[in-house]
Amino acid sequence: MSTTNPFYLLPLFAAAWFVHSARRIEGPGARSFKVFVLFGALTVGTRTALVLLGPVNRGSVLAAMLEGLRVAVMLAVFGTFSSVTDSWRILRLTPRRFHEPALAAALALSIAPRTIVAAARVREAQRMRGIEPRRWRALPALAVPVLATGMEEAGTLAESMDARGHGRGRRSSYRTEPWGPAAWATATTAALAAAVFLLVARALGGGLTPSTFPFVWPEASPWLVLAALSFSLPGALRPETRP
Amino acid sequence: MSHAVVFDGVSFTYPGAPDPALSEVSFGLEEGSFVLVTGPTGAGKSTLIRAMNGLVPHFSGGSLTGSVTVAGRRTLDLPPRKLADIVGFVPQDPGAAFVVDRVEDELAYGMENLGVPAATMRRRAEEVMDLLAIESLRNRSVRALSGGERQRVAIAAALTTAPRLLLLDEPTSQLDPQGAEDVLAALQRLVHDLGLTVVVAEHRLERVAGFVDLALGCSPGGKVVLGSPAETLGRVGTGPPVTRLGRMLGWSPAPLTVREARRMVAGTNLGAPVAGDSRGDASDAPGEGPAAQVEGHLSSPASRRSHRQSPPQPPTPPGPRLRPAAAPAVPEGSPSQARVPLVRAQSLVAAHGDREVLSGLDVGLCPGEIVALVGRNGSGKTTLLRCLSGLHPPARGTVETAAGGRPAPGLDVALCPQDPDMMLFCETVREEIEATLAAKGLRGGAGALAGPLGLRDLLESHPRDLSAGERLLVAAAAVVASGAPVLLLDEPTRGLDVESKGRLGAFLRSLAATGHGVMFASHDVELVAEVATRVLMLAGGELLADGHPAEVMADSPVFSPQMARVFGAPWMTPEQVAMAVRGR
Fold first, then answer.
1. What is the pTM of this model?
2. B244, B334, B379, B527: which could form a disulfide with B375 (CB 3.0–4.6 Å)?
């Protein structure tokens, strides 16, 4: 179920921002929130600009902005996730039978911070040639090495995993981390908030997709706003120290 | 004895390639061998190694005929993962090959895939961490390790599965000389004690020649020969400096290690000629040998060394007679004092977060100088280069150009990246160089820069089709095209064969000759001996020594080049010694 109602989207964004600022961890991933929010802003801008190319009225522009906002909030949530979690630690918290998908997810999540690091190195290298990274014309000079190296590294990783026996079927575990109170609390809050959101929206409506044509001021259910805000609770939890 | 690896009439061609990478290759490696794979870049060393665990052809594609058998299993029938219990593999770029995050988990990854019981995993992880001295890294993230640490962890991760065969593609390229020695010695112990078979591709022959007992020589066209290291290096026409010296002077057989060279040379002072037919008893058998040629032309360096503080030498036979007039001149003092440095650091303190990496350095780089930065992994070499290039702001102290003010990257100082792929983005080498020139508002002129690097024939090639060595040269040309008077390079010889290193050295000299200042960080003592006009030795962020290579390196048990080990200071390169011996 998705919503374009700004009264739900903005509290969700606030929750993401709060969790990010309260629980951000050290490392290259810490910057991914900023990067994803930036991408989100770009999405809103691009989505709106596309509408301006066609016949314009208040409804179509608003609809485009709200759709853009929905994507932007999803990106922000993703950015928060990668800035506050150590996906490798999640891998250790994952039960053995879900190891394969969890490993795939952890590797996928590590792409963002790795790309940020690679992009910084490429920028430095090109500055040495007088190629000013802020210019639009410098885009290929920045993007090509990042993408090409990324592809090459992905190939090396796939080879390395196969050469080290990935996918043989039988697996043992070096160590798994038990779930502590914070892990349980986070999972429970998220599940409860999602459930409230789904149930209340189904039972009472609540204007998940406000009408923009004709334009009506969107209504908001206080229950749903509360549910959206409750996603910020994990930000107030005390993290567990690593074993 | 049974064979660990058997190649039987193996030919292999990469998809779309006109010529085979391996052509009718047949050999067998007995269990418990320590094997070197040698040959110029692009001759098929990596292909040969990867054919031993099935990555070729299962991952590479292409067509393979004949058969490769590893511990009785045919690689054509089995994917690499089905060989993972008997073959360990350490690729060239270990950073990209790490799967999980923490060092300890990375060591366990292969064992988990094989279903090794938890108790066994714990024990093996501890043993291997001790063997490679990485216990202190156990909780670190693999992505935060230095290049040298990564190589150790990658080797450790390949050893925990207790393979029968270990394949390593340039395992010491990022290790300092002592670190490389330690890792190779650890591998040799496994070869001797457990009968592990180790196959290692390595360009720095001076590091491995003394450890291996067999060598596979690859040559362009896909031919591969197996023989003793001496035979194979002779056939491929390469070798460490002592071997090259031996060949230049017509010693037969040419020595492989410093020890052998010393023995051969020692014969001189005993007055006994040295055998020319068998290396093993070179020191005590009569016959024609190098001694006969060295005699009379070289005066003992011991007398010249006596006025200098030098640490006690290992039980070296008195050196050969070096004719004093022929000895290379060692300039007095540091040449930088007379001129204005292009870039200068004063009382430079630099930090990463809270950790101080450089503590109060005074360093200058003058026009015409080629300065080598040497020191252990983590001694602060890269940070110093980044400070001098203006990328890393000093915590205290100053970094200034001749005109005063912080150096501007790409204007006053150009730093060539360690990995050229971080920079190359064009379709051809010409465009790559012209991209820099265009950023400066210039047109054309790529040919003039490509000339001294030997890249003229490659101007229209795609940079990513070139060898690692050639790509580095393209990156160096692209950076130098910025017109910055200072060129800095961080570990430029990673993955470079002897020939590419020669080209790089010639390029650096031509830059210095045109008034550039060049500084490079390197673990490659032979390159340093070859091209550096001055050496800075760093340790723990402090400047330990600053002077002519012959002064700084010759007495060091770790950083001295092979010639200094055989003949004493100030002999640095085989060319110097050969000229002194020949040129009467």
1. 0.83
2. B379
